[in-house]
Amino acid sequence: KWDFTSVVLPKTAPGVYSAQVTINAATPWGYNFLLYDGNWDAKFGGSESALIFGGENIKADWYATMGTYTMTVDLINGKCTVN
């Protein structure tokens, strides 16, 4: 289970959203970004370096340890970064 401190990633620039995410368990099914709460048809997925509308879940194998990370989503350039 992943726990976001905010349900919606706050907008930090046009098309760019960033928030803290706490990883406290493995996520074998990966993750994606819903445009509307509860609407699984309107989502971005694919990969962190190439987000696409309607894409498959993104593999969640980038983190080495459980903990809190900053996740930034850039919908204009189709990228997601986690630090």
What does this structure look like?
The protein is an all-beta fold and 83 residues long. The protein contains no helices and eight strands. Strands 1, 2, 3, 7 and 8 form a five-stranded antiparallel beta sheet that branches. It has a three-stranded antiparallel beta sheet with strand order 4-5-6, with no helix packed on it. Strand 7 (67-74) and strand 8 form a beta hairpin. The model has no long low-confidence stretch (mean pLDDT 82).
Highlighted features:
single chain; 0% helix; 83 residues; five-stranded antiparallel beta sheet; three-stranded antiparallel beta sheet; mainly beta
Give the topology:
Layout: E1 2-4, E2 11-13, E3 16-23, E4 33-34, E5 43-47, E6 50-53, E7 67-74, E8 79-82
Antiparallel strand pairs: 1-3, 2-3, 3-7, 4-5, 5-6, 7-8
The structure class reads mainly beta
Mean pLDDT: 82
| Poorly predicted runs of 5 or more residues | none
Helix content: under 10%
How many DSSP E strands? 8
Distance between the termini: 18 Å
Query: Helix segment count?
Result: 0
Which shape, going by the Cα principal axes? globular
Radius of gyration: 12 Å
Beta fraction: 35-45%
Please provide the ordered H/E string of secondary-structure elements.
Answer: EEEEEEEE
Largest pleated sheet: 5 strands, antiparallel
